[in-house]
């Protein structure tokens, strides 16, 4: 009986490791961008300091994805605004925004990605479509999703005593 | 008994693989270097004087440089910048009123002189308070403006309107003895108002 159990454990471990590989995103070309609005104007912020890894199955299909980025790395071309965002997101306590997948379903050249977004110390399940484009050996993924600041217990920033919109659109581009 | 153990182990294996959804993330987090900088590399001299690494607030141990204290400083900063905005609007309103009163005074209504002087005092007070709220607020968490940004323009315009405020006040004090300075006083006051209004308009959250 013990031998059987040992074999089951060994085969499972070997099976997982032999079939899957990990790929790291090219940091110099990958980015995450956010879009926000206020009554008087709209703006975007971009982070080019994104660490992303995918676990790829034997046929090249994505099995898992995880990404993390420092909140301080988001640049909206206005450091006062960036600093304000860091204040409301309590970046000193929660310096990163993180994501990991819980399920990935392939549909042609796109994936339906479900996972957990961790932001401001709050974990939320999200779902989004990720499209794949292949160029030579390179694999590129694009996706976007929307979340609400208040879902992550974030007090909306204000300008001229007027709050920003609650909705934040996120766009991502990852090159492997 | 043996089968029961095998079933239990297989269930546990299944649960274990489900629980490993975040293993890639954990791997990434272990590799990431934490950013521990509490102050930005560049801080304006007025803020550095109070809140810099060797600033007075640190020396006097009123606000030691650590994460908890920086969080409190961020709260103080936000309050001060909100006050800066509010006082800025009050000052702008005062300047508009002063423009109306001032032009009537120039057009031969000397009874408005006391109102003009009272408004000037009010504007000087709110203007100075607004400036102090910005100049001595705790520094931001990041400070990396490059190229021409709205904030940079706001700061450059502040240099213009602050110089204008000083000049307008000096000229106002000299008009009594030298009435020929009136047109210069008015021109400087209008320039101050224009640069101040532009500074309010260009600033963005």
Describe this structure in words.
By secondary structure, chain A is α+β, with helices and mostly antiparallel strands. Helices cover 16% and strands 54% of the residues of chain A. Chain A contains two helices and twelve strands; from the N terminus they run αβββββαβββββββ. In chain A, the strands form two sheets. Chain A has a ten-stranded antiparallel beta sheet with strand order 1-4-5-6-7-8-9-12-2-3. Chain A has a two-stranded antiparallel sheet with strand order 10-11. In chain B, 72% of the residues lie in helices and 0% in strands. In chain B, 22% of the residues are buried.
Structural topology:
The complex is a heterodimer of chains A (176) and B (205).
Chain A: H1 2-19, E1 21-24, E2 31-38, E3 41-47, E4 50-56, E5 62-70, H2 79-88, E6 96-107, E7 110-119, E8 122-135, E9 138-148, E10 158-159, E11 162-163, E12 167-175
Antiparallel strand pairs in A: 1-4, 2-3, 2-12, 4-5, 5-6, 6-7, 7-8, 8-9, 9-12, 10-11
Chain B: H1 2-19, H2 23-31, H3 45-51, H4 56-59, H5 67-106, H6 113-135, H7 150-175, H8 182-202
Task: Describe the structure concisely for a colleague.
The complex is a heterodimer of chains A (176) and B (205). Chain A has helices spanning 2-19, 79-88; strands at 21-24, 31-38, 41-47, 50-56, 62-70, 96-107, 110-119, 122-135, 138-148, 158-159, 162-163, 167-175. With 176 residues, chain A is an alpha+beta fold.
Uncertain residue ranges of chain A = none
Largest sheet of chain B: none
Structural class of chain A: alpha+beta
Q: How helix-rich are the residues of chain A, as a percent range?
A: 10-25%
* Assembly context of the chains: heterodimer
Instruction: Label the structural class of chain B.
Output: mainly alpha
Biggest sheet strand order of chain A reads 1-4-5-6-7-8-9-12-2-3
Described by the principal axes of the CA atoms, the overall outline of chain B is elongated
